[in-house]
């Protein structure tokens, strides 16, 4: 796997915490040059220091995905500074814990802007600059919730479903031109995603879901993402037995699945 990443630029959005933070650590061990992007540049610099990243082998850039109209400028600026990357990992995002009827429009927009529009616009801006010049691999962190509509996650699921549709279409259009897409579907992973998730009024929950606390280790998730990219997998589900069973049931016995999901423990 190291040969795939060695001395190549890997861009990681949402790099200051959770899966993104672990991706930075593991990609650097694979001898990649890593671009760390998020709103929290101080946290990114601190992470680079903790990981002992060498000068010239990493870069820190501010990226606010919610301000999705700015992501095109981010992409163009970074290509000018660092060249065309080999891998772009669209990881940045925010989750939700609220009933649809209790979720206001501002919260819905914030989640869609951050999770979908930011990644879509950044990618759209890159396409003219990379086609015919270098093959680029996009790894897109969707979610099992991007395949299953779960209670308390209507806006989050919508944003993750949207990523799937956008990048599946891009793949069908441009894979022959050198753009490769890996769609990643994590289930419950041990991160702070539930603590940072938005309630219906836009405030953070500040609490850890029991299913997240009992989820898969973030180290395993990051390893499987990088492995899937290096091995040119188009799809990878990184989840526990319950989530995988849910995906199977939805496909094979949808009526039974929809009855079960109404009573599923998702917090």
Automatic annotation (TrEMBL):
A GO cellular component annotation in the UniProt record: membrane
SUPFAM superfamilies according to UniProt: NAD(P)-binding Rossmann-fold domains
For the keyword Nucleotidyltransferase, the answer is no
SMART domains named in the record = PKS_KR
Q: What residue ranges carry the coiled-coil annotation?
A: none
One Pfam match, given by its short name, reads adh_short
**What keywords appear on the UniProt entry?**
Oxidoreductase
Q: Which residues form the Ketoreductase domain?
A: 8-192
Which GO molecular-function terms appear in the entry? oxidoreductase activity
Give a yes or no for keyword Oxidoreductase in this entry: yes
Task: Kindly list the residue ranges recorded as spanning the membrane.
Answer: none
* Source organism, top-level taxon: Bacteria
Matches recorded under Gene3D superfamilies: NAD(P)-binding Rossmann-like Domain
Q: Which family does it belong to?
A: Belongs to the short-chain dehydrogenases/reductases (SDR) family.
Identify the PANTHER family for this entry.
DEHYDROGENASE/REDUCTASE SDR FAMILY MEMBER 7B (PTHR44196), DEHYDROGENASE_REDUCTASE SDR FAMILY MEMBER 7B (PTHR44196:SF1)
State the name under which the record lists this protein.
KR domain protein
């Amino acid at each position: 796997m190291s040969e795939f990443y060695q001395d190549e630029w890997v861009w990681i959005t949402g790099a200051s915490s959770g899966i993104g933070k672990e991706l930075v650590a593991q990609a650097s061990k694979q001898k990649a040059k890593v671009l760390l992007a998020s709103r929290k540049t101080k946290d990114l610099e601190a992470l680079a220091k903790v990981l002992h990243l060498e000068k010239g082998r990493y870069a820190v850039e501010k990226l606010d995905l919610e301000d999705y109209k700015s992501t095109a400028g981010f992409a163009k600026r970074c290509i000018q500074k660092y060249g065309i990357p080999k891998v772009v990992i669209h990881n940045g995002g925010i989750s939700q814990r609220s009933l649809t009827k209790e979720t206001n429009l501002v919260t819905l927009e914030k989640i869609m802007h951050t999770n979908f529009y930011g990644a879509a616009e950044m990618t759209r801006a890159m396409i003219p600059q990379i086609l015919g010049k270098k093959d680029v691999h996009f790894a897109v962190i969707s979610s099992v919730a991007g395949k299953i509509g779960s209670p308390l996650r209507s806006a989050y699921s919508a944003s993750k479903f949207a990523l799937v549709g956008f990048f599946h279409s891009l793949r069908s259009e441009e894979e022959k031109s050198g753009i490769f897409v890996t769609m990643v579907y994590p289930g419950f992973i041990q991160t702070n995603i539930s603590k940072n998730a938005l309630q219906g009024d836009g405030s953070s929950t500040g609490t850890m879901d029991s299913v997240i606390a009992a989820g898969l280790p973030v180290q395993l998730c990051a390893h499987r993402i990088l492995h899937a990219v290096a091995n040119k997998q188009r799809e990878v589900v990184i989840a526990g037995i319950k989530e995988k069973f849910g995906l199977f049931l939805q496909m094979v016995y949808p009526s039974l699945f929809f009855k079960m999901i109404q009573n599923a423990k998702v917090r």
